Fold these 2 entries.
Entry 1:
Amino acid sequence: MAFERNIKLLRWLSFFDDFTLFSALAIIYFSKISGSYVLGLSIFSFTMISAAIFELPTGYFSDKFGRVKTLTLGAFAFLIGSIFYAIGTNYWFLVIGAIIQGLGRSCYSGNNDALLYDNLSQSGKIENFAEENGKISSMSQLALAIAGVLGGIIAYFSFSLLMWLSTIPLIICVVLSFYLVEVKDISPIDQNILTHIKQALKNFKSSYKLQQISLTNIISFGIGEASWQFESVFIGSLWPVWAIGISKVLSHIGATFSFHFSGRIIKKFTAIKIIIFDNVVSKIINLTALSIANIFSPILMTTTSLLYGVNETATKKILQKEFSDKERATMGSLNSLFGSISFAIFAVILGLLADKLGPRDALLIKTFISFIVFIPLYKLKKAISKDD
């Protein structure tokens, strides 16, 4: 059946899209080309700002013209952006690559989860969303783990070769996207983009739980993603360059298992309990690792990955449950839009702090700032308990 083939293809698309050989060393490559940490991190910011700009148009495009067309557009954008990274003769080539990859990110953000949800809905298996989403995401983490090992070895000999080889999996993604089948019987929308976005915003306004889980997700993504991209610099101050990829590999392996078993874990403990537990434990672990700042710190920080996948899947489960069918991709894009803005802000702040105070102190300050996420989490927990 087309539905089953789509889900299998989504798993492999997830794998090859994140088979990014330079991922673990991206901040080092970008900082080397640009000349500073803040400019290196600004490349990630350009990606997120670009994604924020394109989020609503691509969300509308997905809802109106189809999930598969949007995914294919995203696959092409990721490939072209990666080519500009590989050329990378100066800072502005990186900026152009980041902007184009931002388009790809916006195409995937609300669209791919919506494509999975639609396929499961049409096949009468919507209750399997968390499990299937977790398995798809686990393929992504597995790819990052393998790429981390290979990337570290290749970078030791040549960063240029590393960047060009990273385009090959993205070519495979483009090819695979043409084998996906559109969900035919999803009713098309006939309203213009502004009316469609207005309705999506109205849906956010009418759901208190959606507001709180979205705010939690936006804050967590902005701070967490900026920190993740920058951690390689901190690890590089404790371990040799060739070993940086090892810590990333261990994190991705942990996340692979976390995503794979997330559906079962969520059924046993509930989504909200998992999100709260992860936020408490992960922050304690990071504070401890940064405080001791020795050769064991990177290993300790990798243990947070064992909760990461379950947290992400739990968050998506709550979001998808609250999203409306006709605005599903657009509502996901709205969430990603504000997440991208959040990342862009925190990435610049983190880069400035690192240039002034050093990587360790910058990450410590970031961790303390991240405690603000418990405000919307507390409100979300109360709202869910009240409904139950």
Entry 2:
Amino acid sequence: MAVILVTGSSTGIGQETALHLARNGHQVFAGLRSPDTANELKARIAAEALAVEIVQLDITDGDSVERAVKTVIDSAGRIDALVNNAGIGGGRAVEETPLEEVREVFETNYFGTVRMLLAITPIMREQRSGRIVNMSSLAGRMVFGCHGHYSAAKWALEGLSEALAFEMAEFNVRVALIEPGSVPTPAWEKGTPPPPDTHYMRSLERLGQWATHTMKNPAAPVDVAEAVAHAIESDTPHFRYPVGQDAIEDIAGRASVSDDEWIEANRLQGEAFRQRWLEIVGVDYFG
């Protein structure tokens, strides 16, 4: 049994991950910003009598992070695994995204993870054991227009995770990245819509067509949870875990061409773009 702290556990992937790990016999601490409103999570924990303790945790607040980690250590005496799941979305053109919105995306998706790492890595280093699982995204490997800042934060997380994997190796701590494609969660209902007079409607439409196609056969939150469990439980975990058919297809397609070929393909418009995507990825997302 491992002692596991999961951030962003109120709904969606985080909730399913916390419950799935508890079903696998682990002691789970589910971190979320507002425990008082976590009625669904509490009901699911009670219904199955799972070993999940809810802790208040806002990864954008250093004091909250410190209190949450102390709660886990005081209760369990150790932290064997950290799942950095908490995050927010964002999808607008670079020109049309206010700087404060960019900061908000990075404050949660990158700096929030860093706060958790600053609190957890000394514990795992002293234990000389541990697993750190960072929730990235297909957007951390492949980018569309009007998704730049979210993708940038995930790309930053990917680079951070690779460096961390090297640094923690001598202390027997493994690091993994989870890279889901489209997963139906409440996060899809959040986010700021583009301005009605946007200059980038074609890019938005392309992103929307991609999402429409991928949501016909999406991964489920439990698929992501299973990938997280493998990263924690396996003796031979992977570094990267693409989750979902779209993630597998798109990452493979992106890797099959040069950077210049990929950029030129995505500069195409209309039917020319559709045909080139089909050649690269092998699946018609835009028909």
